[in-house]
Structures are given as C-alpha cells and as structure tokens.
Amino acid sequence: MADTAKAPRRPRAETPRGFRDYFGAEVTERKAMLDRIAEVYHRYGFDPLETSAVETVESLGKFLPDVDRPNEGVFAWQEDDTGSGADWLALRYDLTAPLARVAAQYRNDLPTPYRRYAMGPVWRNEKPGPGRFRQFYQCDADTVGSASVAADAEICAMLADALEAVGIERGDYVVKVNNRKVLNGVMEVAGVLDPLDPERFSAERGIVLRAIDKLDRLGVEGVRALLGEGRKDESGDFTKGAGLSGEQADVIMQFVGANAAVDDALLAASRSVNAHSKNLSLDLRTASWLNDSNFSFLPRSKTDGDLRNDFTVSYLRNLVAESSIGKEGVGELEVISDLLRAQGYESDRISIDPSVVRGLGYYTGPVFEAELTFEILDEKGRKRQFGSVAGGGRYDDLVKRFTGQTVPGTGVSIGVDRLLAALRAKGRAGEAAVGPVVVTVMDRDRMADYMSMVGALRQADIDPNDPSKGKIRAELYLGNPKNFGNQLKYADKRNSPVAVIQGADEAARGVVILKDLILGAKIAAGASLEEWKSRPAQVEVPLADLVAATRAMLA
Amino acid sequence: MADTAKAPRRPRAETPRGFRDYFGAEVTERKAMLDRIAEVYHRYGFDPLETSAVETVESLGKFLPDVDRPNEGVFAWQEDDTGSGADWLALRYDLTAPLARVAAQYRNDLPTPYRRYAMGPVWRNEKPGPGRFRQFYQCDADTVGSASVAADAEICAMLADALEAVGIERGDYVVKVNNRKVLNGVMEVAGVLDPLDPERFSAERGIVLRAIDKLDRLGVEGVRALLGEGRKDESGDFTKGAGLSGEQADVIMQFVGANAAVDDALLAASRSVNAHSKNLSLDLRTASWLNDSNFSFLPRSKTDGDLRNDFTVSYLRNLVAESSIGKEGVGELEVISDLLRAQGYESDRISIDPSVVRGLGYYTGPVFEAELTFEILDEKGRKRQFGSVAGGGRYDDLVKRFTGQTVPGTGVSIGVDRLLAALRAKGRAGEAAVGPVVVTVMDRDRMADYMSMVGALRQADIDPNDPSKGKIRAELYLGNPKNFGNQLKYADKRNSPVAVIQGADEAARGVVILKDLILGAKIAAGASLEEWKSRPAQVEVPLADLVAATRAMLA
Fold first, then answer.
1. B370 and B494: one domain?
2. Which end of chain B, N or C, is less surrounded by CB atoms within 10 Å?
3. Are A475 and B45 an interchain contact pair (Cβ–Cβ within 8 Å)?
C-alpha cells in the first residue's frame, strides 16, 4: 500500500536562527547597567522615548518597497487587509530612524531642542554568525534641533559620566572627538576635495580614508604607499593607491601623524618647563619648543596641566590653514574642548583626537568615540585594548526627508553588549548572583508549615538596620519531595546560600535545621574528611529563630 | 505633453496603524511599576527570562504555515534565504508560548521546578481600535514542572504582594480563586458532563458557561431562562437556551448563587455568635445555622475571623458531592486556602470565589483573577468598580507539543496598561513629574560659564543629607538664545522648576538670578497684580551660592 500519511510531526523547540534567550543574571546585569545610564541621561535633562518596534518601511526610509519583499536588511511584511496598496511594515533596525519619524510627527508638540534617550532591542535581517545576533540592544541619546556645538560637548560629557556611572573608572576610558569638517579641510589642502565640485576626486578620497583607517595594521609606511602608487601585501597581492603626489601625501601623512606629533610636543613642553622652573604653569606663547611651526597657532594661555587638547587643536589649525571648512571644524573642536574644560573634563577623559575616522563619512560635524583603554586577553590569549564601546556625532538632516526642513541633531549610541562584556571583564557586573534560600519539604502533609516559614523569610529585611538592602529571597521546594537528595541538588542548581530543613523529629522539638550551602560547597571542594567533620556547615535553631539565624548565615 | 513624472513624494511621519509611542513619564511610570513587581517576583525565587521577540511560527504553534501568509492574528514573514522550505517567523503574541519553547529547549539545564518571570512587549495582528493597540506589554510569572497546588497558592500570594508593592492598598483588591475541576463537577452533577464521554453535551455546556458569565448583566432570572428554553431580550430577539430540566438548572443555579449563599451564611453566623457570646471564636460544627444543609460538610474548627473561604469550600463540596472530579477540585481549593492562611493571607485578600468563570475553558485546575474593588468613573461619568487587572491559572500541557511529555505549569499575567491606569486613577503613579533646572543663555559668548553652572548643579545632591535622593537634574538651553522669552517658554514646556539667569550685569557683579517657575506659575494663575508684585518668584544670589539656593528652591 502507498499509504504515506505521516505521524503528526512535533514542532522543534528552537530559538530562530540568529536569535537568543537571556536568563537570570544576563537579564538583571544588563538592566542594572541600563538603569545607571538612564539615571545619568535623565540628570542631563534627557527624556525617555519608547517608540513601537514596528515602523512603516516608508518611514524607516533606507529600504523602499520597490521589490516584492523589501526586506533587504530588515524584517518586513505587508499589511494584509487592504490589498496591493497596503503598507509594508518592518521591525526597526536602529533607534535613530524612529527618532527622525517622531521628531517630524510631533514637531509642534516637542520642546526645541528635544533631548531624548531610548533603550531597547533593534532587529537586523542579516546572516547570523558567532556572536552576531539578529536582535540586540541599543542605548541612544540625541539632541534634536540644536545647531550649537555646546550640544556636542554635552553629549561627550554625558557619555563620560555614563561610563563612570556603570563602573568604568577614570583612566580606563577616553572619549575621543574628531570633526568631519577637519578631514574635509585636510582633503582640500591635499587637493583631493574641490569645494566647488564636491563629487570630484571622490574615488581618491575613498582610498585615502580607507588607508587612514588601516594605520594600526599597516603602519606609517604602508599608509603612505597606499596614498601614492599602491602597495603589495605579504601575499603578493597589489592594492592600487590614490595616486597622490609626494606633496599631497605629505599633507595626509601630517594628519595621520597628528597624535604622534602632539605626543612629541607635550614631551618637549614638559622638558622645557622642567628645565626653566618647577612651576608647571606655562605660557604657551613663549615656550621655546613653539618654534616648531606646527604649533604656532596656539592662541592664548590656558589653564594648567592639560595641554593635549590645545596642542592638537593648534596642530590641526596649522594643517588646514588654507581651508575655510577645515578652520571652521578646528574652531568647533576648540570650543568643545573649552566648554568641557569649564565643567572639569580634561583630555584624560575627553580628548580631541584626529585618529577617529570611523563614521566620518556619515556624520556632518563633530564625531565621538568612547574607547576603553584597559587590556583584556583576546580569544587567542593575546593582550589587546578593549576598544570602542560607544560612538556618535552630528548629523544635520534628520527630519528633512519627512518635512523638507533641515533639523540639526547630534547624539551617541552605546554598544550595550560590548559595554556589558567590558564590565564583566572588569568584574563590575553580576557579583556572583546568589540564589534564594530554599525551604525543603520533608513531610508533604506539613506544606502549610513550610509555606509559613518561607513567608516569614520573605517578609524579613536582609539587614534590619538597613532596609534598603531589601528582603530575604526565599522559595519553597515545589518538586516531588520524595527524594531528599534531589531537593539538595535543586538548591545547588539554584545557587542557594541556605537550605532550611524540618523533619518530623525537628517539628516535634520545635526546631529547624539551616544548612550553609556556600560554606558547605567550599568545604566539600577542598577539605579533608577531618575538616569536613569538624566544621559541619549546618546549625539547629528554635523555629522562632529561623529569620535571625538565616540572616546570620547570609551575612 | 503627457509628462506625468511626479515630484519625489515625502514619506509620511506616522506611527503605523495600531501602534503608539510613549514619551517621558509614560515610560518611567511603567518602568517604576514593573521594577517593583520584579522585586517581588525575585524575592519569591523567580528568575527573569527574556526571550527574543521573534519565534518560528511552528514553535508559536497556534498559527500554522498552511496558507501563503499565515499571519492570522500574528505578524509573520518567511525567511528569504532558503526558498520555499524557509522558516516562517513571527512576533510573539504572548509570553507563554515562548516559555513553552524555552521549557522544552532547555529542559535538561533548567531547574525543576522552573520559576520564571518575563516582562516585555507582545504583538497582535488585530484590527486596531480606540485604546486597542497591536503592541502592548505583558508581565508574567509562571512555575513550570510542579503539580503541587502549593505552586498555585504561591502565585496567588505573590500576586497580592505585587499589587501592594506597586501601591494598591489592602482592601482595594482581591485575588479570586476558582477551579476548573469544580465547574466540571457541577456540570457532571447537573447531567451535562459524562466522564466516560467528555465530548457529549459540549454544546449544552457552552450555553451554560456563557449564561453563567452573563450573571452580572442578566441577573438570576435571565441566567435561569438561558439554562432552560431560552430568553427573549429587550429587542425581541430570542436566544436559545441549554434545554436543561428544572432539577438540572437548579444545580447550576446553586453554583451561580454560591457567593450570595455564603454571604447569607456569614451574616447568620455572626448573628448566632453575637447572640450566644461576645467571643468571636466559633466552633463551626456546633453553630446552629449549620442546619442549613449547604454547609453540613464544614470539616473542623479553624482559626478565627476568616470564615468566608471555609464557607465557600463547604458549600461547593456539598454541591459536587456526587462528582469525584468536583470533590478533587474543592479539595484543591481548600488546600490553597489553608496554605495561604498559614502565610497570613485571609479571604479579604485572596478569596475562593466560584464567580470566576472567565478562562475556565482554557485552564485545567485552579484559576485566579485579581480585581480592584475601588470605584472609578467610566467614560460616561458613572461609577463602576475598576475590575480585573490580572489573571491566570494552571495548565498542564505546556511543553507536550514539543516533547510529548506532559509538564504541569501554573502562572499569572498582569495587565500592565490596566494596572498602570489603576495607579494613575489612585494618584499612585507619576507624582507630578518635575522637569530639569534650566540654565538660560543671555550671552552666547559665555557658553563655557553657563556650562560650568549646569555641570555644578548636576554634580550636586538634591539633599546633601540624603544622597539616595539623587543629584540635581539640570540642562543648558541649547536653542537659539536670541529671544529670551522663548527660553522661558521652553523652560515652561519642560516643566522646569527653576530657571537660572545670568546676563552681563550679573556676571560683572558675580551673581546669578534664580526664577522659581513653579511658584511663579501659581502666582500667575491666581494672583492679583499686587500679590504678583509683592512675591516676585525670583532671587539674586552670589554665584558661589548657586547650588545651595537651587536646592532651597527645589525643596
């Protein structure tokens, strides 16, 4: 017989490809971190905004319904009620596109400027890979409707405060600030940007940008080769260069070498100061090393002890002296540095840094990147700096697509998963999540007694002198109580600190046994039989002392 | 010419139909409420679980990919990479289906029982309507893998604690508990359920259930008519009844009348007690009103003062005496009541209540519903009880679809939006969200000075004696500073309590002006010109006193 009727197939219990679940401490650690960040954002006057996860594809913008299924990079579907004219909907792929929609939709109701923060999942319809998920958290703060460079400075200060609030110590991070306009100025001076014909030389600029971005990997010589004729790598493959003349390449290389030049100048300055006096105060205009022409634009005496940003500004101003857009950009960086200094943020925390190139193509003015400077071991056990955990900058056409009106904006996005990984690497997240006290069940006819114990524990403060520490976390064993060993295994799996035990004998005597599971585990792990016996990790106390004795064991 | 080329159309800046955005306090109030609920769940030993928003349609279950677009009630789409065999994905429509998937997927790793809570948005592809959204929050707690009725009791206690934790006072809520098995017992006794042929009489049972659910609207007579031949409503339309005999209908009506009978019995009991002695202690077996046969099963003397649950259990036990499933159900209710009493939860908080019918078709054992008992005014200005804010119960085939193995579960879901509405109605949410202090800009060349002021405010505790109150919320005005009136309008829109002002004159004298905007608004709203002048809501203080004076104004 050809009866091919199948048995009903059971569905697979599987997270969809590229998605994941978060359990217990994975949820609470992220939440604790985001709560602390939100507290900082709130203090800076930013208001929370929670848009829906779903937007029209039209409003998301980047992806247009000109194909049958427009889910290039997004998860999209068509509304099924109104035929072919029905809207296409999609899950948001970031928190900026919804902000643009909100800024346009509510433009008559929102304050101007509008400061908002947003935290939540976004979705990308991409090929999943190791550590690459199709749903992940973003945490953004933006100021919409302010052209003032003070808005950019504020974002940088807030980012530094947020990093410290979650537990990244001063010295372990630096917020680097660059400016798209400075790069444009450098390109102009190098002759690969014509303000009257911005499209010209765009291929060359692309090669230059990519070369600059490879400084870490290729070194100065490698970058220089890519600016000229090109470069042959170890495998013998040849990468065509931008074809710049030696003079043109010099300009770019001066930009690439800015940080190193500033380092040298700072060293010279400190030597000069030390040579002349013990007084660290310094008039920049008279210092001898200022004969170096790169720093001849240093404008005036500033406060002590934090010259790096001033030096960098001066160096960049000299470099782009022939470009008006470049000078504008340097001026903005100087104002940002001054505004931040007025609030106490020096270059150890927020540093003007021309090496920040990533994202320069997207933004229109200042760009920021927060880097963690401490070292971790990578997958191969090599030391490396932790690296970037946040980035942002100024963009000036947020709502123009909707209203035709240009509205300036600036903002930052924190990489939630990366920052959380950093906190874990520093031991600042999830300090050994302790499970609940477990009240075991010796006698299933006395469930009411056990329930009363667990209730009493839960109503009790962990520390009666400090109610802010919360109440005791406790649960009753609700599995099959027959096998007592299973109950202790369960308590172990729950990472429980204390097991409460009361059999018929204890009940008759009005006592209860408390087993210190953390101490017990320590003893079991490393103790001889004698030690194990001499320190039985359990006590018997009167039932009336249940709460007090549990508190003592938790302390 | 037939040139019909259109100008590029701008996208509409609109939230998709049925979706909404949440601003400011709408976000923080909900978050504060969920944080308090999570604290209670955590204390009960429940662990957080956050699944992805996206599931395979196969795993969600209810909706199968047997049509081209299987989005009946869900938002679904097909993976676009592997042709016709590609998975259909969908947004979760509740938090229970993902729990079922997780319980099956991780069954070897999770503790048994597994207590988890989950909070987050869910999505329904339904026709949106007023107050009906296609994305909304759910807040669930479930215990998977315990058949013990103690798990149900625990959920009820936790629900009561959670309601109190968010600010619903004792007396303003009641958690009602019923049991599907009791209803089955009543049906059996009434002759509309045959344990040997459960499908028989299912049409009649449907009519009976719907009739019971209409008690509030139709009254006793209306329900009784629907149990028999049927009923003509005011419009003259006839609804066919279940066709029960008088005796059969009597059984159902005894069930429907359970609460009223218990009320009467409680009244009689209190009269009897008062007549015999001032002592409220009462031996139920000897009380004279127990001649009423409905209460003849009252088993033993219990603690004082809370007889309602005992009376209800006794009444129901009498009613279903001829049904074994019914007796089992009553027994479960009695155990729940006893376990809760052992923890101090009496019927004023958690009440055995046969009137809870909603959801009985879905659950397999105990069912719970939390009702808020205070009155609010409805849209038409009429008083009505606030009503249900949470519901749940026991279901026993959570993971069977995946593994073939029956795993018992019980849980509750809080209606987040409804509970938040209740808190607002009681004035327990969002106590007048105060905006940030606004530092205004009189002189745009002195932005660094203003930035330094706003920085100093933000670093200062609101109350130096109590750092737990947090730091001062403050922002710098970042719009165009030209028109000072606009700055004050902005501060007003931000609900700012204090505006800080320093023009060139004040700067020269080293002072700053603080404007009390809340007092100012009060004065402006209701004051005569004389009053207005006599209480100018602003002070001038030395710059060094900025923080102290702002603190004083905020206090």
1. no
2. N
3. yes
- Which of A110-124, A458-472, B85-99, B369-383 tops mean pLDDT? A110-124
Length of chain A measured in residues: 555
Q: Tell whether B390 and B454 lie within a shared domain.
A: no
Nearest to A145 among B134, B473, B479 (CB): B479
- Cβ contact (<8 Å) for B54 and A341? no
Q: Are residues A49 and A69 in the same domain?
A: no
In a domain, A401, yes or no: no
A176 in contact with B, Cβ within 8 Å: no
Domain presence at residue A1: no
| B16 in Cβ contact with B123 (< 8 Å) | no
Q: Do B89 and A16 make contact, defined as CB atoms within 8 angstroms?
A: yes
Q: Do B466 and B536 reside in the same domain of the chain?
A: yes
- CATH number, residue A308: 3.30.930
B64 touches chain A (CB under 8 A): no
Min Cα separation A177/chain B (Å): 18
Q: CB–CB of A54 and B75 under 8 A?
A: yes
d(CA B342, CA A137): 44
DSSP B60: H
List pLDDT tens digits, range A198-225.
889 989 998 998 898 888 888 899 999 9
Q: B66 lies in a domain?
A: no
- Give Cβ neighbours of residue B9 (< 8 Å, ≥ 6 apart): none
Number of C-beta neighbours around residue A148 at 10 A: 23
The string of pLDDT tens digits covering residues B461-473 is: 999 998 888 899 9
Contact present, B456 and B546 (Cβ < 8 Å): yes
| Structural domain count, chain A | 4
Q: A182 and A110 in one domain?
A: no
DSSP B174-229: EEEEEEHHHHHHHHHHTTS--TT-TTTTHHHHHHHHHHHHTHHHHHHHHHHHHHTT
Q: What is the residue range of A81's domain?
A: 55-91
Same domain, B331 and B459: no
